[in-house]
Amino acid sequence: MEPSLPLSELQLVSTMALKALEDTHFLTAFCIFTNFRVLPLITVIPEIILAGCSSIFSLELPDHLGEIRSEAFYNCSCLRNVALPSNAVLGEDIFISEQLQRLLDQLLEGQSFSVEQLLIKKHFSMDLQRLFGSEERIVREPRHRFDKLPVHSVVYYQSYHEGVLQRLIELDPTGNQQDCLGMTPLHILTCSSVHNLELYLLL
Questions:
Q1: pTM (2 decimals)?
Q2: Which end of the chain is least crowded, N or C, by CB within 10 Å?
Q3: Residues of the chain falling short of pLDDT 70
Q4: Which domains does the chain have, with CATH numbers?
Q5: How far is CA 23 from CA 28, 46, 112, 184, in A?
Q6: How much of the chain is helix, strand and coil, in % rounded to 5?
Q7: For residue 147, what are the contacts with CB-CB under 8 A and spacing of at least 6?
């Protein structure tokens, strides 16, 4: 019998499951998950699939993913651990709406903020936005997150590949260097849906 998933984790295992979730708007209505893992069978992430899901912290996307459609992860305010596949076709406003952000900035510019205004600004502000600023940089940085950081890359994709331990031994990991999100390989591993004590000890 397969072990059940922790309540904090959701895995997309088939296109049929993806279609069912998309049709019922399950994710945005009942989003209690902190980790969202897309299994290799899925090649396209539909639009608005996780829009407004404020509990999501970590996205695990396979490196061969073909397309991420518009607003797929729009306003996922706590999202921090994500790497965008370098060859994936990306829709518009995957993470934030530049137009909405400009409008909010104009509305709130130069004012002494009321409690309501501060809540509005916080609601439409993401961790990634605070880190990188614009949607353009939020998309660019995760696409190149693992450039010259092979250990980080192996650890992020370890749930999709075999022989990870041997590959890390060959790469002689130190586990100290931070990527553009401020994460070491050990941070990335703790966000993973798959945990391996040997990997922890190696890192």
A1: 0.75
A2: N
A3: 1-31, 97-126, 174-175
A4: 9-143 (3.80.10), 150-202 (no CATH)
A5: 11, 11, 42, 37
A6: 40, 10, 50
A7: none
